[in-house]
Amino acid sequence: MITTTIFLSSLASLIFNENFYQNEHVKNNVYDSLPDANERTHEIVMFLDKGTELGSKFNQKEKLHMQDVKNLVDNGFLLYYFCIILLISVIIYYVYTKKKFNHVLIYSGGIIIGFCLVSFLLQAQFQYFFIKFHELFFDNNLWLLNPATDKLIILLPEQFFVDFVKNVYARSFMAGVGLFFVGFVRKKI
């Protein structure tokens, strides 16, 4: 539960972060092909966050795919909020019963650290996992975009997602180290 909350928190901290997208646009030379990349990005972020409509910059296939993405994001946030409520309940339980929470912090931190290290090692197989992710979470082929007709794949190339995932793991890793350290220090006190 703590581990899921940490990973979803890391994901949530990036998904609506337009600065992250813009840095990726520079890194991936997106502005060369799409000078209006910032406007497109803003539309996507507003669509995912507030449900505002995607405009004429996106074709029908892109809009349908983004609706699938929005459904996934919305369900992810439902899981995130559920985990937060559950986590708060567990913390209240430990505080109320005066039980030590140290071992939970140490184990959760260790699991996060281990998962992140394994994930970093598997980055060489990113494309394989990226395809499997889409096959698992999408029940159509709308995610198979063509750069000649679908500008979304130019706006958000595969390298964007590689960097996105690396950032999620890096943030989660730091949180895992923090949990482990706090649990270890509290155990020694």
Give your account of this protein's structure.
- The chain has 189 residues and is mainly alpha-helical.
- The protein contains nine helices and no strands.
- It has helices at 2-15, 18-27, 30-33, 37-50, 60-97, 102-121, 126-137, 152-155, 158-188.
- The protein is elongated, with a radius of gyration of 19 Å.
- The model has no long low-confidence stretch (mean pLDDT 94).
Q: Helix and strand string, N-terminal first?
A: HHHHHHHHH
> Helical content, roughly?
over 70%
Q: Give me the count of strands.
A: 0
**Based on CA inertia axes, which overall geometry fits?**
elongated
**Overall average pLDDT:** 94
- Which strand-content bin applies to the residues? under 5%
Which residues form runs of ≥5 with pLDDT under 50? Answer: none
| Subunit organisation of the chains | single chain
DSSP helical segment count: 9
What is the distance, rounded to the nearest whole angstrom, between the alpha carbons of the first and last residues?
A: 25 Å
How does the major sheet shape up? Answer: none
Q: What count of domains describes the coordinates?
A: 1
- Radius of gyration, whole Å: 19 Å
Structural class: mainly alpha
Topology:
Elements: H1 2-15, H2 18-27, H3 30-33, H4 37-50, H5 60-97, H6 102-121, H7 126-137, H8 152-155, H9 158-188
Short synopsis of the structure:
This protein has 189 residues and is an all-alpha fold.
What are the defining features of this structure?
single chain; mainly alpha; 189 residues
